[in-house]
Amino acid sequence: MHKETLAIHAGYERDGQKSMAVPIYMTTAFAFESAEHAASLFALEREGNIYTRIGNPTTEVLEARFAALEGGVGALATASGMAAITYALLNLCQAGDNIVVANQLYGGSVTLVTHTLKRLGIEGRTFDLHNPEELESKIDEKTRAIFFESITNPSIDVPDFQSLVAIANRHGIITITDNTVATPILCNPLELGVDVVVHSTSKYTTGQGLALGGIIVEGASAKEKLQSQRYPHFNEPDPSYHGLIYTQTPYPPFTLRARLSLLRDMGAAPSPFNSWLFIQGLEHLPLRIRQHSQSALTIAKWLAQHPKVQRVHYPLLPDDPNYPNATKYLKGGASGLLSFEVASFEEAKRIANSVTLFARVVNIGDSKSIITHPASTTHQQLSPEELLAAGVKPGLIRLSIGLEHPQDLIADLEQALSA
Question: CATH homologous superfamily for 285-418?
Answer without folding.
Answer: Aspartate Aminotransferase, domain 1 (3.90.1150.10)
